[in-house]
TrEMBL record:
PANTHER family membership: HYDROXYPYRUVATE ISOMERASE, INOSOSE DEHYDRATASE
SUPFAM superfamilies (UniProt xref): Xylose isomerase-like
Entry protein name: TIM barrel protein
Pfam family, any one: AP_endonuc_2
Organism encoding this protein: Streptomyces physcomitrii
Domain Xylose isomerase-like TIM barrel intervals: 33-297
């Protein structure tokens, strides 16, 4: 077994069933911090802005007292919609980026907006972007990445995501080919990429220089087949258990981690098992087992 010396393992509020800044079905943020530290993780993400304390001093005290460090903040943005959404987008992005910077993080995870409602499945936009929208998306992503880098010193990593316009191999590679490698990198989420038919190992081998960050998750192939057959939105699919505990699903994570290690760069690999909503006692045992599994892979 190869020791994955370049891979830094962490977890995120997502693995505790947290999708929103405030929701009665989610665990309290103090409990999340206690349990993620107790489960053997050193690194965390901020999760939805407002879930963890947004005061940098308080956040530093709460994470530091538990031996935790922040790797990234996360934002959603509909940059394909053009300059008209820039101001509202930047208002949110700047808040998250400022907190991430103050927390010592080096990355901002950028997720494209959904083309259908994550809960109801109502179609909000066409599933496919036009050529002009692709050009707008690429230009907007570069602009955001440049501003985030210049103002906050963070690296922007785009996160392909189910039910967004950047999901399949075709769409992911189209965005990568259309953007400046010095500005835009990829947050490869192994679960979302498999959900949309992609091969994570092949993507790492082909676009290795663009891989800037990893999210580790797996999908249950049987549930995924049902999801595709019924054309379920992502939210209900998660409720049905499409994202499963490693190593029960796909893709196999050890080959992904080995491929990432071979890039010979330092990479965060953040565990994200979508489980919203879930019983409050469910996440920690899974988190512990997942950490042990990743240790068995050399991480």
């Amino acid at each position: 077994m190869t020791t994955l010396s370049r891979i830094r393992i962490g977890s995120a509020p997502d693995s505790w069933g947290v999708w929103f800044p405030d929701d009665p079905r989610q665990v309290d943020w103090r409990r999340f911090l206690d349990e993620v530290a107790a489960s053997g993780y050193e690194w965390i993400e901020l999760g939805p802005y407002g879930y963890l304390p947004t005061d940098p001093v308080q956040l530093a005290e709460e994470t530091g007292s538990r031996g935790l460090k922040v790797s990234a903040g996360t934002v959603f943005a509909g940059l394909h919609r053009g300059p008209g959404v820039w101001e509202s987008t930047w208002e949110h992005v700047s808040s998250v980026a400022a907190l991430a910077q103050a927390s010592g993080a080096g990355h901002l995870v950028l997720i494209p907006s959904f083309w259908r409602d994550d809960k109801t499945g109502a179609v909000l936009e066409d599933r496919e972007l036009s050529a002009e929208q692709w050009r707008t998306l690429a230009a907007g992503t570069e602009r955001l990445a440049r501003e985030v880098r210049d103002r906050y010193g963070l690296r922007t990593v785009v996160h392909p995501h189910a039910d967004t316009h950047v999901d399949t191999e075709e769409h992911v590679t189209r965005l990568l080919d259309a953007t400046d490698p010095d500005l835009v990198s990829l947050c490869l989420d192994t679960g979302h990429y498999a959900y949309c038919g992609g091969d994570s190992v092949r993507l790492i081998e082909t676009y290795g220089e663009r891989i800037g960050y990893l999210h580790l998750k797996q999908v249950d192939p049987a549930v995924l087949a049902q999801v595709h057959a019924e054309d379920l939105p992502f939210g209900p699919a998660v409720g049905r258990g499409v994202m499963c505990e490693p190593p029960a699903g796909v893709p196999a994570l050890e080959p992904v981690l080995q491929a990432a290690q071979s890039l010979d760069v330092d990479l965060f690999a953040i565990v994200e098992q979508d489980m919203y909503p879930c019983e409050p006692d469910r996440p920690q045992p899974i988190a512990r087992r997942t950490r042990e599994f990743l240790r068995s892979c050399g991480a």
